[in-house]
Specification:
The complex is a heterodimer of chains A (about 400) and B (about 110). With about 400 residues, chain A is α/β, with parallel strands linked by helices. Chain A has helices at about 5-10, 20-30, 75-80, 140-150, 160-175, 195-205, 250-255, 300-315, 380-390, 395-400, and strands at about 15, 40, 80-85, 90-95, 100, 105-110, 110-115, 120, 135, 155-160, 175-180, 210, 215-220, 225-230, 235, 240-245, 245-250, 260, 265, 280, 285-290, 295, 325-330, 335-340, 350-355, 360-365, 370-375. In chain A, about 25% of the residues lie in helices and about 30% in strands. Chain A has a five-stranded parallel beta sheet. Chain A has a five-stranded parallel beta sheet with strand order 9-16-10-11-12. A five-stranded antiparallel beta sheet of chain A has the order 23-24-27-26-25. Chain B has helices at about 25-30, 60, 65-70, and strands at about 1-5, 15-20, 50-55, 80-85, 100. Chain B has about 110 residues and is α+β, with helices and mostly antiparallel strands. Classes of the chains: A alpha/beta (about 400), B alpha+beta (about 110).
Chain lengths: ~400, ~110
């Protein structure tokens, strides 16, 4: 079949989700010379944009809106990508190979990619629906939070994960009083080592954040508007509250369509769901990370970009298994935190550099092999660690500790 | 505003206008110039926006920061005129800038 014939016969590829993952999938298909129609259904009104700055420079007022767009508007027409903003999918009709849109229209597909991401989790506590209680995931939510912050005096953040702490830093930059309440015994408990957690906690306190750990919130207090947050017997005054309690993956469409779903949509190493013509990528996809021998759902830009490339490859019949070294980053104050790999299971910790100097790296080994690295203002350590983990390196801990040994020397 | 010419490894040229305040990396991404990946979004954290600054423009494009220097250790085929394009801010001074892309990023 030649190109033209094939294009005539192809129904095309539909991507549900206009975030980083959805857009990267579309761009990757075109890059790989896929010639059929590509349609992206984006639930939000805005052009596809970068999420990471929403809690960082954009919220701090240091980044203009037009720099958030992932691609300029003209890109979509030029690349032949039919981007439909403000359009959600209502259902997947697997029997007929069609997506049913919110407005009732149907789009036929040969292959379907679910890049539905997730929603900021709202806690099931009384008062969570009061006015003045915010969450942060989308651009619209960031704009609402930013406008409210302008008028607020005290912001109480529930949850000391990345988003909570980044918003704390951005809000301190804007001169606001900030209280952070974390139910666990340390900040970033889900992703960071305890050494790093403790160090970041101290940094935030140094910047004037009232960070409290072991602080489980019972209720949010107020008549119509929020006036405080109740922890144990104490009410902490607040005129603005952010619930930063993680993400709920959007699995509804997949579930209704009968695909395998748990916490996320189950996919294989080619990003394929239990239906061979439906893929799931990015924040919503759960898969077995062979390298670490465990099932994961990765919420990161890196995974959003790479997993949909894996899906695009599979669609084009060039599938090689997706087995990444996950990586994450966070910017707080003048600190750039970069994490390579997954820490869980580590038996040895090697510190390189002095936390007092504001730049250091923590290497985590398991049975002698490097499995993760947490780097603070230490990009070379991070970069080298990524490659070392990928190569299954077993570095000498003494050398790792020794800053006179250059990181690139570990790569040869 | 500055006119910047991006030259791909195979010699393909892309002349685009880039607004002041953007970075050379953003100029490429926004104008769909291939050859610059910028995986990290411009945080000097991935070394996938490596370019060679034309010799005549080296001084105007400025010096590498120490962070940039250490990241370039991880780029391939680094030369004296290598820069990370996310670290070059665009202004009128760079009107006419020419940068070349390496064979591969990262």
């Amino acid at each position: 079949m030649n190109d033209r014939e094939w294009r005539r016969l192809a129904k095309g590829i539909v991507i549900i989700g206009g975030g980083q993952a959805g857009l990267s999938a579309a761009a990757e298909l075109r890059k790989r010379k896929y010639a059929g129609p590509v349609t992206v259904l984006a639930g939000e009104a805005a052009l596809p944009y970068q999420r990471p700055p929403l809690s960082k420079t954009y919220l701090a007022g240091e980044m203009a809106l037009d720099r958030l767009w992932l691609k300029p508007e003209a890109f979509y027409a030029r690349a032949g990508i039919d981007l439909r903003t403000d359009m959600r999918a209502r259902a997947i009709d697997r029997a007929n190979g069609e997506v049913i849109c919110e407005d009732g229209s149907r789009i036929a597909y040969d292959d379907l990619i679910l890049a539905t991401g997730g929603e900021a989790r709202r806690l099931p506590i009384p008062g969570a629906q009061l006015e003045g209680v915010h969450v942060l995931r989308t651009l619209a939510e960031a704009d609402a939070l930013s406008a409210a912050l302008e008028r607020a005096k005290t912001l109480v953040i529930i949850g000391a994960g990345y988003i909570g702490l980044e918003v704390a830093a951005s809000s301190r930059k804007r001169g606001k009083e900030v209280v952070v309440l974390e139910a666990a015994d340390r900040p970033m408990a889900r992703t960071a080592s305890s050494l790093l957690s403790g160090w970041f906690g101290a940094i935030h306190r140094g910047y004037g954040v009232d960070l409290r750990v072991g602080a489980a919130v019972n209720r949010i207090v107020g008549e119509d508007r929020v006036t405080g947050v109740k922890v144990a017997d104490e009410v902490i005054e607040a005129d603005l509250v952010l619930i930063a309690a993680g993400l709920t993956p959007n699995v509804g469409l997949a579930q209704a369509a009968g695909l395998d779903v748990s916490d996320g949509i189950e996919v294989d190493a080619q990003a394929r769901t239990s239906d061979p013509h439906i893929y799931a990528v990015g924040d919503v996809a759960r898969f077995t990370l062979a390298r670490y021998g465990r099932s994961v759902r990765l919420e990161s830009v890196h995974n959003a970009i790479e997993q949909d490339k894996a899906a695009a490859r599979a669609i084009m019949g060039e599938g090689e298994p997706y087995d990444p070294v996950p990586w994450f980053w966070s910017d707080q104050y003048e600190l750039k935190l970069q994490i390579a790999g997954l820490i869980e299971g580590s038996d040895t910790l090697v510190r390189r550099g002095d936390p007092e100097e504001g730049r250091f790296a923590l290497f985590h080994l398991k049975d002698g092999a490097l499995i993760a690295c947490e780097a603070v203002n230490c990009a070379p350590e991070f970069m080298a660690a990524q490659r070392m983990i990928a190569a299954g390196a077993r570095p000498d801990p003494e050398k790792l500790r020794d800053q006179s040994v250059a990181m690139k020397d570990f790569l040869s | 505003m500055a006119k910047i010419t991006y030259i791909e490894h195979d010699g393909t040229e892309h002349g685009v206008d880039v607004e002041d305040g953007m970075t050379v990396m953003e100029g490429a991404i926004r104008n769909m110039v291939p050859g610059i990946d910028a995986d990290c979004g411009g945080a000097c954290a991935c070394a996938t926006c490596h370019v060679y600054v034309d010799e005549a423009w080296a001084a105007k494009a400025g010096e590498r920061s120490s962070m940039e220097e250490s990241m370039l250790d991880f780029a391939s085929d680094v030369r004296d005129n290598s820069r990370l394009s996310c670290q070059i801010k665009v202004s009128g001074v760079l009107d006419g800038l020419i940068v070349r892309m390496p064979e591969e990023q990262g």
